[in-house]
Each structure stands twice: as C-alpha cells, then as structure tokens.
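Subject: Interface between my chains keeps coming out wrong

I've been trying for a while to get a sensible model of this assembly. When I model each chain on its own everything looks fine, but I need the whole thing in one frame so I can look at the contacts. Pasting all components below, labels as-is. Any help appreciated, I'm running out of ideas.
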Amino acid sequence: MTVLETTSDVEPEAPVPPGPEADDHHVAPTAAAQVQRHLRTALRWAVVIASTVAIFSAFLLAKGADPASVLESMWKTALGTPDSAGETFIRATPLLLAALAAAVPARAGLFNLGGEGQLLMGAIGAILVANQLDGGAGTWPTLVLMAAGGAALGALWAAIPAVLKVATRTNEAISSLLLNYIAGLVVTWLCFEPWKDPASLGQAYSRELTGPERFPIIWGQRVHAGIFVGLVAALVLWALLRWSTWGFKLRVLGGNPSAARRAGLAVGGLSIAAMVVGGAMAGLGGMIEVAGTEGRLRPELLAGYGFIGFLASWLARHDPLRCIGAAVVLGAIAVGGSGLKITAGLSGGAVNILMAVVLLAVLGWGGRKAEAAR
Amino acid sequence: MIEAVLTGAVAGGTCIVFAGLGEIVAERSGVINLGTEGSMLCGALAAYAVGIETGSPWVGVVAGLVAGAVLACVHAVLVLHRGANQIAVGLVVSFLGIGVTALFGQDYVGQGVVPLETWDVPLLSKLPFLGPVLFQHDPLTYVSFLAVPALTWMIWRTRAGLVLRAAGEGPEVLEIYGTSARRVRWVALLTGGALAGVGGAQLATAATLNWSEQMTVGRGYVAVALVIFAGWQPIKLAGGAYLFAGAIALNLQLQARGWELSRYLLEALPYVTVLVVLALLSRRRIHGGPAALEKVFEG
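Reply #2:
Try treating it as a single job with all components included. I did that and got this:
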C-alpha cells in the first residue's frame, strides 16, 4: 500500500475510535495498559484543545481583539450560568439530530451534506401539520403528529439525493449540498409570502405556534421537553446500529461495498434507507426547533446547523452516543458565538474558525491512525 | 431580453468558470476539493479589502489569488500528508473560510468597493448582440475566455498536463517514473485554490460590487458540481457556469417583467437546474473521471 492510497481514502465507518487503541493490537489489556491508554487519549485531546484555542487567539489578535476577554465572554455566554447552560442544551438538540442525519448514512459509506435542508424541511412539515390540526387536538397527539410530519418531510428531502445516487450514480455529497440552498429558498418564500404573519410587518416570519403545538417548558424560561426527543433518538439509533441486522448490513456496506454486493445485500435499498433514516432525524430536529425553541419559521432559522451537525458526526466518528457529546460541545461554541457578537462586537460567524480548527485537528489525527491501522 | 440574459450569464458565470477551472486541475490530479467555496470567499474578501486599502483593484486580485491558495494549503496538508477524508476536510475548510472572512470582513461590510472597471474590447464591442454579450466586461472575464482553451491545451497537449492526468489516473505509474504524485497534487491544489480566489475576487470587485458574509452562497459547491457535469472538460464547465448564471439572470428579467411566480422560488431555479443536469448526466460521467476520484465517489 503506497502513501498515495491514503489520499483517496474514504473512511465511512471510522473503524478506529479516538485514542491509541490501534497501537495496542499486540498488547495484553492489563490494567496498567488501560490507564496508559486513557492517559494518552486525554493528552491528545488536551493538545487538540490547546492548539485550537491558540490558533483562534492568534486570529483574534490579528483582528485587534483581546483573546482572553473574548474567550471569557464566550465561556460565560455558553456555560457561565444555569440559564446559559440551558441555552447550550436547547441549541445542542437540533445539532444532535443533524449529527445523526450525517452519522447513519456515513455508516453505509454515504455523505449526507444535506442536513441543513432536511432540518428546514422538517420545520416546514411540522408547521404544515400544525396548520392542518389548527389546535384541534391535545398536546401530545399534536406534538406526535407534528414530529411525524417533520420526520416525513426531512426523510423525503433526503430521499432525493439517495434515489439519484442509486438510479443515476449522482454524487450524493454534491446533490444533497445543492438541495440545502433550494430548501433555504423555499423557507424564505413561505416566510415572505404564503405563511407570512400579518403582524410581522417589515420582518418576515410565520405565525407563532402556541398551546398544544409547543413542547412544554421543563426548566427555566426556555428549556423544553424536546431535548429528550433528541437523546432518545440517539439511544435508539445507537442500539439499532449496534445490535440489529440492519445496523450490521450498513456496516458491511460502508466497509466494503463490493463485498456487500457479492454477499447479496440489497445495496441500493440499504443506501436509500440509510439516507432516509438520516433525513428523518434531521426533520425531527427541525420540528423540535419550531415546536420548542423558536416557535415559528424564520428565513435565517437554523442557518449553519446542518453543517455543524455534519462536523459533530465526524467529531463523534459517526457513533450516535458520542454524537451527544459532540453536539453539546459544538452547541456550546455556537452559543458562545452569540456572546462574541454581544460583548466583543465581533461577527458571530467567527466561531466557525473554532469549530473548523477542532475538526481539522481531529480529522488529521484520525487520518494517520487509519493509515497506521492498515 | 435574450441579450440581457446572456450578458448576465457571462458576467455572473465568470467567477464560477475560474473556480471550476481550478477544481478541474485539482480533480484531474485525483483530489476533490470542496474547500473551493472557502477559497472563493477568502479571495473575495482579500480582493475587496486590499482593493480598498491600496486603491488598486489589481493588487486586490493578486491578494485574492494568494488568499485562495493559502486556504487550499490547509486541504493539501490534511489530505496529502495526514490521509484525512477529502470530502469531510473540504467541507471543514470551507467552514474555516466562512469563519475567517466573517471575522475580518466585518469592517468592510457596506464600504465602497474599488471596482475592477469594465473595459470594452475595441471594435468587437461594437458588434450588434455579440458586442454587449461578450465584449463589454471587466478584464478578468476576458482572461477567463482565454483560460478555458489554455487549460484544455495544457491538460491534453503539454507534459505538465500529462503528469497531472497521470497523478489522477495512475499515481503508481508516476512514482515508477520518478515523479512524486503527492508533489503534483500539491501544485494542483494550490493552483485550484488560487483560481477559486481569483473567481471570488471577480465576484466581489466586478460582479456584485460589494462584500457580505457568505456572499458566494454556494457558488463554490456549484463549481464542484459543474466539474462533474462537465466531465472534467474546461469548455463544458464554462457552458455549465454560464447556464447557472444565466438562470440567475433570467430570473431577474422575469421579475422585472412582473412574472407571476414568487421571486424566492425563481431564485432556486439555478440550483435546481444544476441538480437536474447533474442527475441527467451523472451515469455517463462517472467513468470518464480520473480513476483516483472514482474511489472517493464509490467508496
């Protein structure tokens, strides 16, 4: 195997979890080795975090801002008080579902970069159902139907690149990416024209969802029951991927598509199913955002969440349980971004640097591990 | 109306032509670079800001070129030296570009641009119809007209082109002949980033004449999509780029004429167009591409 091979390396299933496990093939798992292993993992993460903060600080210095005060205000906004920690959790929920939307297809070796569009379609689906019901059902039936509507529309949006992939071999990464822009314009259209709230005047947004159409608040002012939906979804998917035959088949497909084909697996059907399940997760995320946090559709709703979710999935190496942690970390950074805007007067988009550098460090580190594992 | 649409297609398509030509160079060497979107953004901001600071749009264009190439370095290091996944890294690199330009671009929002002036080609610009469509643009557009045949010639008729294609088709063979495929891919990725940077520069200082966060709205990704649709051929890529920009121009014309359909839905038309042609042509295209890329696509 030449060095060059690694450049065309697709590592869909991420066989090597973070940490030096791959080095330990011929080391007996003694207690001492275990401790050493965890220490090395911790050390690596410390290096990743320290270098990320250093690079971000360098950018801030170049901009003429004071890194210490900026980082402090970001920390305070994201985790400083119970209320801000709650904000991080409600922000992490759609991120978690967007991460799952990328993780399930990634198990099958597919790239779903369309999380953004699928989130938005989920939000639209939820509001469509709410408008149909018109407050005529109880809280839980309403929410369940809205969730079903959101998941269905998200799944449908993800089915487009999946079917195109299977039927015409269109690269699903690129088609799902393009669909994000189309979904964004559909949302803008709904907000400005058919669904425009008459009270919104110059701004454009849809009517506010109320009563049974909203998740009950469980803590503080804004933390709603929707966060449990995300956690349950992650647990269910984790169990499915780990223990069901379906999960096993996806792993085979992701690991070696030609072997999967020779083994008689229905590759096309499995690919479509993986994308559709992913899209349903994102759709659910969009539903939670409108029925929980936001209460209405706005053109800039969830902007960037699909991409951050994709990053979270890679950070978690496509493991649904690890996605929870990754979503909370990236959610905290995203919330910190609003602190950046308010207290330091910097553009909130600058936190993308922080997220990107973390991910680049993790991707670079994982790449070499995959190479070493061969 | 046809004249206005075609003129708009050329004016708006030029930035995608540059980015797409860069992506062709990168993909011919066997690496897909979704960081093109980020390189375009960095190029756009660098050209815009440096143009304002120095008063010279041309210094700005050079800055855009450098900025695009610098961002592509990140992709090159991770993909070529760390063996990281190309599609994931590309997307993250674009994300980095969005972040960096959001941080540094903030002060330039709403500032007056130092534009790249249009320059009418003598005599040719006086032609009826063809004159305004092809010969009344900024100088970078004429550069792109020349770059398309030049790159085609380079790929198929020069030794550099042969080495580039060899890196994408059979890197092992290249190694046997004593050329490092990794080095070829480095050069290809830097060239690609630089061209995307120039595309961004053209977008900010000649086409839209302003700077705003994420102003490329996916044009870099569209360029990547068009490269596949074009079968890695520069001339077809240019056609695709003008098709995308033509759809934007058509939409503006329809709005001006009080068309019934919502303008927001019409704005989706260019993306739908690219998606549809990509789907229609993909089955034929995938095997025409560099062999090393097929591995990326097919998993």
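Reply #3:
Confirming on my end. Chain A has one domain: 67-373.
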